[in-house]
Specification:
The complex is a heterodimer of chains A (653) and B (176). Chain A has 653 residues and is α+β, with helices and mostly antiparallel strands. Chain A has helices spanning 2-29, 32-61, 68-73, 80-85, 91-112, 121-141, 166-181, 183-195, 201-231, 242-267, 271-294, 309-329, 331-334, 346-378, 386-406, 417-440, 446-477, 481-491, 493-517, 622-639; strands at residues 520-526, 531-534, 537-549, 552-563, 566-571, 574-577, 585-587, 589-592, 596-605, 611-619. In chain A, strands 2, 3, 4, 5, 6 and 7 form a six-stranded antiparallel sheet that branches. Chain A has a four-stranded antiparallel sheet with strand order 1-10-9-8, with helices on one face. In chain A, a hairpin with a 2-residue loop joins strand 4 and strand 5 (566-571). Helix content of chain B is 72%, strand content 0%. Chain B starts with a helix and ends with a helix. The chains are: A alpha+beta (653), B mainly alpha (176).
C-alpha cells in the first residue's frame, strides 16, 4: 500500500504535467482532440490521487506505524472515525486532502462543461492542474504522506486530542471544500482573461460553483467556531485567531463578489472589479493556507505548522503576478461604459455593500499581519488581539447588517421616494419597535440595541418581500398561500434563496450579540455539597471521579443544576489526559436551550475533592447554529438551477 | 467648444469637491481611529485590563487573560489583582507587565505612534472609500443623464423605442 500510494502520487504528478502541456498545445494548434486528451488527463490525475488517499486511509485503519504520518497521527485504540479524520490532522495528510478535493472539483467541472465553453476549458484544465501539480509536488518533495520510518513503532502517538471531536471530523473537509472550491471560479476567470472571451459566459459558468464554495466555507467556518466552543473551554467560539481570520477573509470577499456580480450580469458594469474579486478570493484561500502552515503568526490552531511557508509565498506571488498581469493586459477589453440611472438604486447599495465587505476583510488582514508589518517597519512587534478586532469590526458589521436590510428594499436602476417610503415603513417599524421594547426593558447597550434593532429590520424586509410576492402571485393565479410561496421561491431561487440566507445571517448576528454582550461568568472553588449561583441557576457540586477510558485518564466532576428550587439536570465537566500528549484537554459540560447555554468548565481540583469550576451563562448561542442551518437551506435553494419564467405578467418584486 | 470648456470647469469643480470631501473624511476617520484606541473608562480597571492583556502560556497566543481558560491565565489574573491593589495606575500596570514578560502581553495596540496606524488604516479605508464610491456613483449617474439627453435629441427616437425600453426594464425587474 505504501508503494501503491507513493507511486500513485508520482503518476499523478506526471499526468497533471501532461494535462497542462497537452491543453496548451491544443489551444496553440487549435486541435480539439488534444483538448479532449487534456480532459481525460484531469480524470486520470483525479483517479490516481484517489488511489493515494485510499492507500493512506488503509494504512491508518490498519495501524501501519512504519509510515511516519500514521505513527504521528494515529494509534491502535483510536476510534476508527478519528483514524480516518487523522487524514487531515497533520501536514502531509491535509495537503493530500486539498489535492483530492481539487481533483474532484476539477473532474466535475470538466465533465459538466465537456460540451460547453470550448474556448475556456483548456485554460480551466491548465489552471486546475497547475494548482494540483503544486500540491502534489509539495507532497513528493517536502511533506511525503508515505514516508517510512527506519523502524516500526509498536504504537502511534495518536491524533492531537483537541482534534478528537465530532465537529473537527467534519469541519476541515467543509473548510477545504470551500477553500478549494474557489479554484474553479478562479480558473474560469483566468480562462476568460487568457482566451479573451470576456462576455458574461464565464460568469454564468461559475455562478453555481461560487455559491457551492461559499456554502461549504460558511459551514466550515461555523463548525470551526462550534469546535472551539466545545473543545477549547474558554466559553466563547471566536477568538480572532490568525487561522480563524484566514478562513473569514475569503468568505468576506466571496460574499462581496456574490453581490457585485449581479450588477455585471444585469448591466455589464464592474467587470474589472468582479474579476479582481474572484482573483482575490482564491489568492486569500492560498494566503490562508500559507498563514496556517508558515508559522509566521502565532495561532492556537497551529496543528500543521511547517517549513512550507516560503513555497506557499512563492506560489501566491506567482498567482498574483500572472492574474494581475492578465487583468492589466486585458484592461482595454474589460472597460465598460458604466452608467447608473439613479444614485437611489440597488446598484448603489450593492457598491456600498462591497466597500464595507472589502474594508472588513482589510481590517481582518491588517490586524492579522500587523505584528509582522510593525516588526518590519521599526523592529518592534505590536501584538494585535481580540480587543482590536472587536472594536474595529463591530461597527463595520453593523453597517453591513443595515445594508443587508436596505439593499432588497431599493429597486434596480431607479427607486422613487414614494416607493421607498412604502418599502421602508414596515421593516423600520419592526426595527424601531424592537429597539423601543429593549429600551423599555432596559436591556443592552448601544451596540446590542443597534444589532438587535437592525436584525429585526432585516427580518422585516425579508418577510415583506416574501409577503408581497406571495400575495401578488396568489391574487394573479388564484393559488393558495403556501402554493404561491413555494412557487415564488422556486421561480427565482437565487433571489429568494438569498433572502433566506439573509435570515440565517441575522440569526447568527442575534446569537453573537446575545452571547458576547450578555454573557455572565462565575468562578468558584467548591467542596462536595456546596453550591454556586449563576443567572437563575444554582449549581450543586456532587463529586469528583477519576477513571480510564480507551487509555485516556479521565477526571470527571458531577454537578446538579437547580432552577426554581427544583433539580433540573446534571452536568459532567471533565479533564482528559491523553497518553503521549503533554497537555490535558478540557471537556466542557453544556446544557443548551434556545434562551441560553449553561457552560461549565472543570478548572482544577485537589486531593480532598475540592474542585474549581468556571461557569458561563451564554445567552442565545444556539441561534448561531440554527442560523447556519437556515443559511445552508438558503444556499441550497439558491444553488438549484432556475427554469425560465413560463408565466410572463406575474409581478416579481 | 463652449461646451467643452464648461465641462472642464465643471470637472475641475467636482475634482476639488472630491479632494475636499476626501480630506474631511480622512480627518473624521483619524478621529474615529484615535477614539477607538482609547481605553474604555466606563468599566473598572481590572475588567478592562484583563481584556487587554494576552495570556503568556505559549499555547493560547493573543487570548485575553479574561477569557483564556488555561491555568497560566489564572496566575496572570492574580498578578493583575496584586498590581492594581498595590495602587499602580493602568499604564503603570501595563509597563510592569511588559517589562516582566514582553511586548506581546499588550494585545490592544496603543493609540500613539505606529499603534495608531493599526487603528487608522481600516477606518481611513472606510471613510475615504465611502467618499470614493459616492463620487463614482455621482459620475456614473451624470454620464447616464448626459447620454439620455443626447438620445432625446436624436430625431429617430420614436414612441415604439421608448415603449420597448420600458418593456425591457419591466422584464429585467422580473428576472431579479
Amino acid at each position: 500500500m505504501i508503494v501503491l500510494g507513493h507511486s500513485a502520487l508520482i503518476a499523478a504528478f506526471a499526468t497533471a504535467a501532461y494535462t497542462i502541456a497537452v491543453a496548451m498545445l491544443g489551444v496553440r494548434r487549435r486541435q480539439p482532440n488534444l483538448v479532449a486528451s487534456a480532459r481525460n488527463g484531469v480524470y486520470v490525475t483525479s483517479g490516481l490521487v484517489f488511489v493515494a488517499v485510499g492507500s493512506l486511509l488503509w494504512l491508518m485503519a490498519n495501524d501501519r506505524f512504519v509510515v511516519r504520518y500514521v505513527a504521528e497521527n494515529s494509534r491502535i485504540d483510536q476510534p476508527l472515525i478519528y483514524k480516518i479524520s487523522a487524514l487531515w490532522g497533520g501536514m502531509a495528510g491535509s495537503l493530500l486532502l486539498w489535492t483530492v478535493i481539487l481533483c474532484m472539483y476539477s473532474s466535475l467541472a470538466a465533465w459538466i462543461n465537456r460540451r460547453r465553453h470550448p474556448e475556456l476549458m483548456p485554460y480551466v484544465y491548465t489552471v486546475c492542474m497547475t494548482t494540483a501539480l503544486f500540491f502534489i509536488a509539495l507532497q513528493l518533495f517536502a511533506a511525503d504522506p508515505f514516508e517510512t520510518l527506519p523502524f516500526t513503532p509498536l504504537d502511534g502517538r495518536g491524533l492531537n486530542p483537541l482534534l478528537q471531536n465530532p465537529a473537527m471530523a467534519i469541519h476541515p473537509p467543509n473548510l477545504y471544500l470551500g477553500f478549494v472550491g474557489f479554484t474553479i471560479p478562479f480558473a474560469f476567470a483566468i480562462a476568460a482573461l487568457a482566451s479573451g472571451r470576456l462576455d458574461t459566459s464565464w460568469l454564468h459558468a461559475i455562478r453555481r460553483w461560487t455559491i457551492v464554495a461559499w456554502f461549504f466555507l460558511s459551514i466550515g467556518i461555523t463548525l470551526g467556531a462550534q469546535w472551539a466552543y466545545v473543545e477549547l473551554g474558554w466559553g466563547g467560539y471566536w477568538g480572532w485567531d490568525p487561522v480563524e481570520n484566514a478562513s473569514l477573509m475569503p468568505w468576506l470577499i466571496a460574499t462581496a463578489y456574490l453581490h457585485s456580480v449581479m450588477i455585471e450580469e444585469k448591466k455589464q458594469m464592474l467587470r474589472v472589479w468582479n474579476m479582481l474579486m474572484v482573483i482575490a478570493t482564491f489568492a486569500l484561500c492560498i494566503f490562508g493556507t500559507f498563514l496556517t502552515r508558515s508559522g509566521i503568526v502565532s495561532s492556537v490552531h497551529a496543528f500543521t505548522t511547517s517549513n512550507l511557508g516560503p513555497l506557499f509565498a512563492i506560489f501566491l506571488a506567482v498567482i498574483l503576478a500572472v492574474s494581475l498581469g492578465l487583468v492589466a493586459w486585458r484592461l482595454p477589453d474589460l472597460r465598460s461604459e458604466n452608467q447608473l440611472e439613479s444614485v437611489l438604486s440597488r446598484e448603489s447599495s450593492f457598491l456600498f455593500n462591497n466597500l464595507v465587505l472589502v474594508v472588513s476583510c482589510f481590517a481582518v488582514l491588517w490586524g492579522t499581519m500587523f505584528p509582522v508589518i510593525s516588526e518590519a517597519v521599526n523592529g518592534v512587534k505590536i501584538t494585535v488581539g481580540p480587543p482590536f478586532f472587536n472594536r474595529v469590526n463591530v461597527p463595520i458589521f453593523l453597517l453591513l447588517l443595515a445594508l443587508t436590510g436596505i439593499g432588497p428594499l431599493i429597486a434596480w436602476r431607479r427607486a422613487s421616494w414614494p416607493s421607498l417610503r412604502r418599502a421602508f415603513v414596515w421593516p423600520s417599524i419592526a426595527g424601531l419597535g424592537t429597539v423601543i421594547v429593549m429600551l423599555v426593558m432596559r436591556v443592552g447597550g448601544v451596540y446590542s440595541l443597534m444589532s438587535i434593532g437592525l436584525s429585526a429590520f432585516v427580518v422585516g424586509t425579508v418577510v415583506q418581500e416574501f409577503w408581497r410576492g406571495t400575495r401578488a402571485r396568489s391574487s394573479a393565479n388564484g393559488e393558495s398561500w403556501h402554493q404561491a410561496l413555494l412557487g415564488l421561491t422556486m421561480r427565482n431561487k437565487r433571489r429568494y434563496g438569498g433572502y433566506i440566507i439573509h435570515v440565517g445571517v441575522v440569526l447568527m448576528a442575534i446569537g453573537i450579540t446575545g452571547s458576547s454582550v450578555f454573557q455572565r461568568e462565575v468562578e468558584a472553588t467548591l467542596r462536595p455539597g456546596e453550591t454556586v449561583d449563576i443567572g437563575s441557576y444554582r449549581l450543586q457540586y456532587e463529586e469528583l471521579n477519576h477513571f480510564q477510558v480507551s487509555g485516556v485518564e479521565v477526571s470527571s466532576a458531577s454537578l446538579i443544576a437547580f432552577a426554581g428550587g427544583r433539580p433540573r439536570f446534571r452536568l459532567v465537566p471533565q479533564r482528559h489526559f491523553h497518553p503521549a500528549q503533554d497537555n490535558p484537554t478540557t471537556e466542557v459540560a453544556i446544557w443548551s436551550s434556545l434562551r441560553h447555554d449553561l457552560y461549565i468548565v472543570l478548572a482544577g481540583w485537589d486531593a480532598q475533592q475540592t474542585a474549581t469550576f468556571k461557569a458561563y451563562l451564554n445567552p442565545l448561542v444556539k441561534w448561531i447554529w440554527i442560523g447556519l442551518a437556515v443559511l445552508a437551506l438558503g444556499s441550497i435553494v439558491a444553488m438549484f438551477p432556475d427554469r425560465r419564467h413560463s408565466q410572463v405578467g406575474i409581478p416579481n418584486y | 467648444m463652449g461646451y467643452t470648456m464648461g465641462g472642464t470647469r465643471h470637472e475641475n469643480g467636482t475634482g476639488k469637491l472630491f479632494v475636499l470631501t476626501a480630506v474631511v473624511a480622512a480627518a473624521v476617520g483619524l478621529g474615529a481611529a484615535w477614539w477607538m484606541a482609547q481605553p474604555d473608562y466606563s468599566i473598572d480597571s481590572f475588567t478592562r485590563l484583563s481584556g487587554e492583556i494576552g495570556c503568556q502560556c505559549g499555547t493560547c497566543p493573543l487570548r485575553p487573560i479574561a477569557t483564556c481558560g488555561c491555568g497560566y491565565a489564572d496566575g496572570m489574573l492574580a498578578e493583575l489583582h496584586e498590581l492594581l491593589d498595590s495602587g499602580q495606575s493602568d499604564e503603570q500596570v501595563m509597563t510592569t507587565l511588559v517589562a516582566r514578560y514582553d511586548g506581546s502581553v499588550r494585545i490592544k495596540p496603543e493609540g500613539t505612534g505606529l499603534g495608531l496606524a493599526a487603528w487608522a488604516a481600516p477606518i481611513l479605508l472606510l471613510t475615504v472609500g465611502a467618499v470614493g464610491v459616492g463620487s463614482v456613483l455621482a459620475r456614473w449617474t451624470r454620464r447616464n443623464a448626459d447620454n439620455s439627453g443626447d438620445e432625446a435629441a436624436t430625431p429617430g427616437r420614436d414612441d415604439d423605442a421608448r415603449l420597448r425600453e420600458i418593456v425591457e426594464r419591466e422584464l429585467s425587474s422580473l428576472e431579479d
